């Protein structure tokens, strides 16, 4: 790979940038475009080490008239979004979703060959893929700063780039595509990039469904077709028709943890929307199949099903179409609160799958395999993956909300105060009630609104087919009683539906005790009878890192997984680990392939659940080609981790990690929790106070609106530090750990050994290296210069920057490199190209924050909007912000 960006990427950046320049000139005049170019030139030369240019950039920005501040921020924000489109287009075209390390791109065909060479039979490969259960859980965490209306325009711009590239022999097509490109960029420029209102949970769900409609609906059958062809080549057989190695679930409309906007009514509405959209999409498929399957040859089973007709396939499909239309009408009536008085609807996956399977088998039986394996097979694959609900909807609620219900209930019934009981008493009560045949909850119980809402959620579960719902996740789970409480509420209110219940272990202490908690649960015979020997456990990355620091949290997550694997093996229970990863390194983010292969051996045994959050959904699944590659990466990683698992860590590596984590944790806590200047510094130097006004998602930025930084969610916590380029949550404490070890005898050697031979440690260092390259302490220092007055706070800022420099030196020492990202030039180049466009936004943001504080939050609407746009632009430029 050249150290310059690939020619096609460079050309597309230029095409988009030139078009934006013409649009802005038409709107605001060439003189304004010249101002933008002056700012960019100052920033570019400043990045080349010219301190005079850096000062001139800041001075130039500070002297801009107020009327220019909003359009200047918009221009740089828009360019960064266009640069992202060009890069996304390039990666889709060259199949580079994860340009992380040269040669690290997993290719499924090569992996299948390696697996066979390692002694796995062709049958074993097919069985492993057929039984694989990877669920990607789409979540609407508030990191997607771009409005849906703009995302649609950006997708259309991507299509224009494809048309321009393929028009060499048809210049008139290129001219038309260029004209459409100019139109779309003008539309984007004249569209407000900041939402005026927060999206509702239903809006978020609609956005998730749109990703399925616009991208995954096509990518899923393409992925299976590619997999089929590979298996035919290597194993001589196809993937079974009902196999779905990769499926999709969602939290959008089901995640009520700390989000009062997600109610039982909202969950019900989102479930109905999924049914409506699924029906709408299948109607298009069925209509196409009815048009195409005009054959008369059929087996006896299909003839019996269709009756005495000339075109039996069309007859079966016509009936399916009628039922699917009724299903769509039913869902619409339910959404509108009307009574449905139409014909029978399709309620389960099998009601759609079975007639299609009958058509498929008939075509194969009469020798029409080519037709069977065309569009009909694609629809069968979609049904296998999406069912009739598009996704399985998970539900999540905090453990304390369930305990509150039982507390209120025991108090009402005169049984005592549940919250005052110890764990043994709680378990005794819950297990007795689980075994009891009489109802516990009075029929006409007048409980609090909070308790009623929890019970109403379980009523929604009772009203649904189980295939519409995924897992019930308990956040802040700490004891077996937290799981048993949900089991009891499901029994009391959830009817015949019993969902898998997954405790979510998030804090350092909870991760350390996760194995013990699950061990106690699995030792309870009545609990075992509920779970069919399958247990799901969720590992929290965001809150554990916020609680303990990234290095200590990463090691705790690893050890928790090892413990859970051992416990479930001992009990003979199948374990599925659910990884609650975010987009950033500070929240467990990073390339999926490397992340999965760095898990403990045995923790990925053909099954895996993982969250895909915020803007990462668009980057990984927003377009069919990239979604196809993302699915291949997941399939590769899980197949490799299952058949060719990584080696277990050596005992002395464990001792090293124990010591590193101990030092890092102490250093992190010493600053974040024990330094009295830390919270005031955080609030003074970052835009944390203004973040609450950026209408990113439906969830409040804090779990409790009356709390301090400790109640701040992990996402805005990281978002705020990212905005000033200090990225503190992802590295604080690591510098002390590594530099201390490097100063000791044999330290460098053992760290380098762990880096090359242990995927967990190597991946952690790779993440850290990328993060350090995106960080910029000089920019953080400028925010401090502009926004912080108190000498004690400035002294803390200086110490933090010194810690950062110490860590960078230590990482380069371990990696034996002169500079960061030496071996990953594409990422290095992508950062370098964006910096001259991000730097002015940092300068303007610091200025606007100061003006906002001087005016006690009463700056003009235009300046307030400009501040919001700087946040959106910086997030777009750095991409994985939350």
Automatic annotation (TrEMBL):
Enzyme Commission code(s) on record: 4.1.1.31
GO terms for cellular component: cytosol
Species per Swiss-Prot/TrEMBL record: Vreelandella maris
SUPFAM superfamilies: Phosphoenolpyruvate/pyruvate domain (SSF51621)
Name under which the protein is recorded: Phosphoenolpyruvate carboxylase
Pfam entry (one): PEPcase
GO BP term (any one): tricarboxylic acid cycle
Active site per the UniProt annotation: 141, 546
Subunit: Homotetramer.
Gene responsible for this protein: ppc
Organismal lineage: Bacteria, Pseudomonadati, Pseudomonadota, Gammaproteobacteria, Oceanospirillales
């Amino acid at each position: 790979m050249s150290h310059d960006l690939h020619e096609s990427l460079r050309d597309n950046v230029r095409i988009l940038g030139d078009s934006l320049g013409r649009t802005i000139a038409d709107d605001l005049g060439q003189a304004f475009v010249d101002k933008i170019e002056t700012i960019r030139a100052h920033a570019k030369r400043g990045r080349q080490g010219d301190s005079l240019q850096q000062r001139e950039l800041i001075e130039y920005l500070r002297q801009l008239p107020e009327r220019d501040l909003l359009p200047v921020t918009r221009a740089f924000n828009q360019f960064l979004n266009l640069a992202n489109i060009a890069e996304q287009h390039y990666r889709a075209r060259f199949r580079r979703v994860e340009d992380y390390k040269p040669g690290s791109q997993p290719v499924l065909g090569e992996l299948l060959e390696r697996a066979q060479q390692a002694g796995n039979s062709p049958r074993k490969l097919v069985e492993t893929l057929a039984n694989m259960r990877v669920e990607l859980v789409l979540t609407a965490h508030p990191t997607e700063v771009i409005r849906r209306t703009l995302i649609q325009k950006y997708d259309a711009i991507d299509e224009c780039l494809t048309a321009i590239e393929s028009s060499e022999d048809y210049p008139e097509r290129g001219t038309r595509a260029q004209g459409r490109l100019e139109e779309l960029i003008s539309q984007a420029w004249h569209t407000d990039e900041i939402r005026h209102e927060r999206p509702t949970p239903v809006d978020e769900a609609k956005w998730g469904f749109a990703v399925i409609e616009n991208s995954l609906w096509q990518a899923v059958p393409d992925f299976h077709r590619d997999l089929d062809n590979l298996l035919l080549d290597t194993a001589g057989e196809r993937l079974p028709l009902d196999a779905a190695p990769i499926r999709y679930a969602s939290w959008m409309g089901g995640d009520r943890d700390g989000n009062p906007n997600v109610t039982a009514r909202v969950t019900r509405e989102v479930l109905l929307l999924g049914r409506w959209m699924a029906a709408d999409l299948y109607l298009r498929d069925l209509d196409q199949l009815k048009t195409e399957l005009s054959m008369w040859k059929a087996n006896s089973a299909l003839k019996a099903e269709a009756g005495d007709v000339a075109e039996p396939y069309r007859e079966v499909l016509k009936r399916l179409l009628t039922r699917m239309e009724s299903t769509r009408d039913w869902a619409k009536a339910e959404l509108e609160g009307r009574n449905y008085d139409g014909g029978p609807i399709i309620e389960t996956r099998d009601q759609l799958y079975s007639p299609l399977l009958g058509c498929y088998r008939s075509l194969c039986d009469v020798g029409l395999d080519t037709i069977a394996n065309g569009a009909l097979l694609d629809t069968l694959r979609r049904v296998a993956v999406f069912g009739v609900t598009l996704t399985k909807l998970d539900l999540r609620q905090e453990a304390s909300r369930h305990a509150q219900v039982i507390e209120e209930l025991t108090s009402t019934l005169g049984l005592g105060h549940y919250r005052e009981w110890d764990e043994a008493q709680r378990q005794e009560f819950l297990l007795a009630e689980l075994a009891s045949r009489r109802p516990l909850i009075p029929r006409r119980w007048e409980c609090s609104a909070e308790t009623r809402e929890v019970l109403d959620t379980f009523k929604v579960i009772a009203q649904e087919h189980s295939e519409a719902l995924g897992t019930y996740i308990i956040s802040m789970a700490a004891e077996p009683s937290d799981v048993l409480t949900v089991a009891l509420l499901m029994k009391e209110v959830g009817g015949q539906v019993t969902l898998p219940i997954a405790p979510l272990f998030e804090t350092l202490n909870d991760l350390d005790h996760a194995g013990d908690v699950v061990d106690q649960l699995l030792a309870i015979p009545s609990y075992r009878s509920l779970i069919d020997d399958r247990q799901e456990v969720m590992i929290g990355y965001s809150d554990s890192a916020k609680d303990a620091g990234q290095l200590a949290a990463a090691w705790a997550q690893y050890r928790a997984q090892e413990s859970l694997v051992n416990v479930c093996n001992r009990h003979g229970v199948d374990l599925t680990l659910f990884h609650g990863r975010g987009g950033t390194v500070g929240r467990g983010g990073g390339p999926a392939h490397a992340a999965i292969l760095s898990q403990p051996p045995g923790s990925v045994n053909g099954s895996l659940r993982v969250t895909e959050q915020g803007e990462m959904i668009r980057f990984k699944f927003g377009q069919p080609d990239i979604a196809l590659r993302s699915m291949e990466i997941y399939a590769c990683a899980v197949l490799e981790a299952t058949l060719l698992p990584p080696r277990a860590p050596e005992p002395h590596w464990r001792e090293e990690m124990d010591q590193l984590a101990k030092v890092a944790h102490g250093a992190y806590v010493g600053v974040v929790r024990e330094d009295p200047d830390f919270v005031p510094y955080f609030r003074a130097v970052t835009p944390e106070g203004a973040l609450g006004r950026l209408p990113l998602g439906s969830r409040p930025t804090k779990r409790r609106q009356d709390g301090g930084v400790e109640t701040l969610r992990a996402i805005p916590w990281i978002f705020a530090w990212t905005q000033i380029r200090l990225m503190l949550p992802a590295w604080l404490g690591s510098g002390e750990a590594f530099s201390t070890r490097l100063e000791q005898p044999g330290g460098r050697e053992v760290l380098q050994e762990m880096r090359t031979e242990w995927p967990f440690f190597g991946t952690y260092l790779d993440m850290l290296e990328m993060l350090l390259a995106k960080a910029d302490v000089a920019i953080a220092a400028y925010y401090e210069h502009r926004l912080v007055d108190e000498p004690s706070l400035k002294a803390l800022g200086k110490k933090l920057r010194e810690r950062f420099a110490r860590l960078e030196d230590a990482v380069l020492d371990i990696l034996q490199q002169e500079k960061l990202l030496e071996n990953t030039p594409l990422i290095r180049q992508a950062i370098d190209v964006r910096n001259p466009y991000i730097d002015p936004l940092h300068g303007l943001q610091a200025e606007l924050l100061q003006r906002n504080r001087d005016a006690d939050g009463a700056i003009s609407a235009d300046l307030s909007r400009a501040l919001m746009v700087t946040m959106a632009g910086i997030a777009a430029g750095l991409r994985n912000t939350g």
